Amino acid sequence: MSRASLSVVSDAVTVRVPAKVNLHLGVGPLRDDGFHDLVTVYQALSLYDDVRLSPAGELRVTTRGEGSADVPGDSTNLAARAVAEVARRADRSPRVAIDIDKRIPVAGGMAGGSADAAGALVGAVNLWGLDIGRDELTEIAAGLGSDVPFALHGATALGTGRGEQLMPILARGEFHWVLAIARSGLSTPAVYRELDRLRDNRADTDVAARRPDDLMAALTSGDPHTVAPLLHNDLQPAALSLQPVLRRTLRAGIDAGALNGIVSGSGPTCAFLCADETSAVDVAAELSGAGVARAVRTATGPVPGARILSA
Ligand code: ATP
Asked: Is the ipTM of this complex over 0.90?
């Protein structure tokens, strides 16, 4: 996204935003401010929400598609908060209709709300023809949520801090994923609380010291067989503790031929890395038949972050 592409004034803008999976998620101890230090490797996947912004009499949000009944339609919606923040900085009123076409599972550990926020940021800047550069947009994104900068950025990246400080990672080739979407969601704060409980609030892990160098090297090789055994998620025991049925989902994916399976972020979506496209289609078919998930999708990664479809 260049500065030039941000200065088009238009009647409506649609922005396509990707889901993410964490290939590595290291979680440090609970900090005094209530957050945890993270070291994570994000990858953006070809499972998208489309966020459409158009001029309106007042700020409003409507959502259709995957899990839309659970998405707030008021000013607490992350996309609405994003538009309100851009409007505040531009000293104008946020009179915009936001229409979200959801495919990313809600409360699924794939940062769907963050993706919508990133889409709304890019959409508002374009709709109003604002001269806001990439750095300022990233700063606004970080203020909205830890995963929002990555949804802007996309591709594969190392995230530190709360996950909002990004460094690109070179990942060769295309990785093939199968996503098992659970019947009910998990609240991210509840999963972190469960992790703290399981660790008895005594995590002495120096998360910064656990940079996943082996995984980053494997990503550069582009070989899924090398990447698969290095997938890791510190939140997985907590997600499994809250939804024990996910053990069965993970086992079913491995039995179906996936190279490895992992809970995505705070869950409960399970992500399976497969050897190639054919294997992914087979694993998806078997998982669908096994009845361990509400829905099963295939996706590839890495893909770009928020991008404009039409203006
Ligand atoms: P993350 O992995 O980023 O912590 P998640 O992917 O598990 O989050 P989201 O789908 O982002 O979960 O939504 C978490 C909660 O945020 C939802 O239960 C919903 O109440 C609220 N929310 C606010 N705005 C949105 C939005 N645009 N889309 C989805 N949920 C939203």
From this structure: yes
